[in-house]
Amino acid sequence: MPGTLFLCATPIGNLKDMTERVLDTLNNVSLIAAEDTRNSMKLLTRFDIHVPLTSYHEYNKYDKAEELVTLLLSGKDIALITDAGTPAVSDPGEVLVKKCIEAGIKVTSLPGACAAITALTLSGLSTGRFTFEGFLPSENRERREILSELKDEYRTIIIYEAPHHLNKTLKDLLDTLGDRRIAICRELTKIHEETVHTTISAALMSSEEKKPRGEYVLVIEGKDREAEKAEKIKGFEELGIKEHLETYEKQGMDRKEAMKAVARDRGVRKRDIYNALLSEDGGKT
């Protein structure tokens, strides 16, 4: 009978965030696969865990995944951990999970610390709908494509960034998205944890004045739907109602459908459009 792959969340800074369930699992699996065995060994030593450790990272994720799947199929239980946080989130673990599912191997996730969700809850921005982008691509063309997509994103945006790339990313965000509200989260759960609620332009100015330190999570306000709607209405109001109506009629709409479209554009009732046309036409429409 195949073993189970356990996705074990580890602390992102504060060791007290290690759960009892994860500790119990790490002590009882046959093997622990870790992104960086040196970092993980310190964690395992701290909790007196003496299970064999093997490396599983970005540069061996495909070949090593095959080896781990073979072990799992032989009945071994394996735990996957990352440097910090939840495995398979912006992480090579997603490859192993996919291969396990394809091979019919049971995969279970043991929840715990996650920097993206921690930062989102601290941001003061909308948490009902959000999109997680992880680290932006370093390749310029792909990076521009991603940023261009985010320009019209209404949901709150979460991005990870290293300190030495923070200035460039803030500048790219300002150039592409405009000046929006942003929460800059640093060293989450650690002694020097900091969340700054500011704007992209102010954050850029601050980061240029002092050297960024620590790992960052950027939580950025989504596009303002109401402001965009108001801007569109303002643009339509610069047209006369009759001219506005004619633009739709020229597209092949009959007058009734065109009046509905004009009312929708202007944020008013169809009856208001009808009455306005009556006034313009001297009582005829």
Which terms would index this structure?
10 strands, five-stranded parallel β-sheet, Methyltransferase, Cobalt-precorrin-4 Transmethylase, Domain 2, 285 residues, alpha/beta, Cobalt-precorrin-4 Transmethylase, domain 1
What report would you give on this structure?
The chain has 285 residues and is α/β, with parallel strands linked by helices. The protein has 3 domains: 4-113, 3-Layer(aba) Sandwich (Cobalt-precorrin-4 Transmethylase, domain 1); 116-223, Methyltransferase, Cobalt-precorrin-4 Transmethylase, Domain 2, CATH 3.30.950.10; 226-280, no CATH class. The protein contains 12 helices and 10 strands. The protein has helices at 20-28, 37-46, 61-73, 93-102, 115-123, 140-151, 166-177, 200-209, 225-237, 241-249, 255-266, 270-280; strands at 4-8, 31-34, 53-55, 78-81, 106-110, 130-135, 156-161, 181-186, 194-199, 216-220. The chain has a 5-stranded parallel β-sheet with strand order 3-2-4-1-5, sandwiched between helices. Strands 6-7-10-8-9 form a 5-stranded mixed β-sheet. Helix 6 (140-151) links the parallel strand 6 and strand 7 (156-161). The longest helix is centred in the N-terminal third of the chain and has 13 residues, at 61-73. It is elongated. The chain starts with a strand and ends in a 5-residue tail after the last helix. The model has no long low-confidence stretch (mean pLDDT 90).
